[in-house]
Specification:
transcription regulation; DNA-binding; sequence-specific DNA binding; alpha+beta; 8 strands; five-stranded antiparallel β-sheet; 12 helices; three-stranded antiparallel β-sheet; 275 residues; Transcriptional regulator, AraC family; Arc Repressor Mutant, subunit A; DNA-binding transcription factor activity
Amino acid sequence: MEQLFNIFKFTTEDAIALEDKHIEAHVHDFEEMIIGAKGKISHFIDFEDETVYAPFISFVTRGKPHLLRPQTHNGECDLWVIRFRSEFMSEVIFKMYGYFHNRANVTLPTNECFGRLTALCEMMHDEINRPSPGLVVIKQLYMTLLTIINHENPTNIEADAANSASETYTHFLHILEENYRRNVKISFYADKLFMSERNLNIVCQEVMQQSAGEIIETRKLTEAKNLLINSNKNIAEIGFEIGYNEKAYFSKVFKRKTGQTPTAFRREMKALITE
C-alpha cells in the first residue's frame, strides 16, 4: 500500500457483485478496519470461521492470514473500509493490536454510538478526497473513532481471555508496553511472567504467529517510526531511546524490518505528510 491512509464505502451493489467470486485466504501489507453498519461478513481468521452481523467492527492486522467475504443481510450491505500503514498511527497501533488480538470482530450496540462512528467515517472520507487532504485532521478523527470503540467495548482481560495463552499474551503486552525502551533480553519478559523463554515463544506463536523477539522488535520499531515522524531527534538519539546503544545496529535492524534506512523512511514520511 503506497498511501498512508485510505477509506471507502462497500455497498449492497458491491456485495452482490462479489457473491459468485472466489476469494482466497490472504495477508495484507497494511492494517484494515471495517465498520459494518448494515449487512454481515463471513470471516475466517485465527483458524476460526465466524459470521458477524452489523453493527460490528472488524480489525485485521498487517500480515495476519484471513478470508473475509462481505454479504447482504435483509437485502442490504453498508460497510466502511479503512486501510492504513502502521506508521500512520504509530502512536497507538500496538494498543490496537492488544485490543483486537483475541477479538478480530467486535459487535457494538445499535445506538447513538454507532451513528457517531459512521459520521466520523463520512468526515474522514470527505477529507481524504479533498484536493489537499489534511492527514493530521484524518488522524485526529480516527483517534476519536478508536476512543469511542474502546469506551463502548472496553478491554477486559478476564472476560476476553478464552484460554491461558491469550491471557499470558495480554499480560506480556502490558509488560512490554512498560519496558520496550529498555535494552533487555527476552528472558526479562519470561521471568516477569514466571515462565521459560521457550514457553513465552510458544504463546506468542500461538496467538500472533510471531516469536517473542519479533514482537518486541516490532514494538521498538513502531516507536522509532513515531519518533522519526513526530520529532527532530537524530537517528542515534532515537535508537538509544528505544534500547539500541549503537546507531549502526539500530539502522541495520530498521532496514531489515522495513526495507529502508531510518533517514530514508523519515524523508518519505515527511514528503507524504506535506503533500
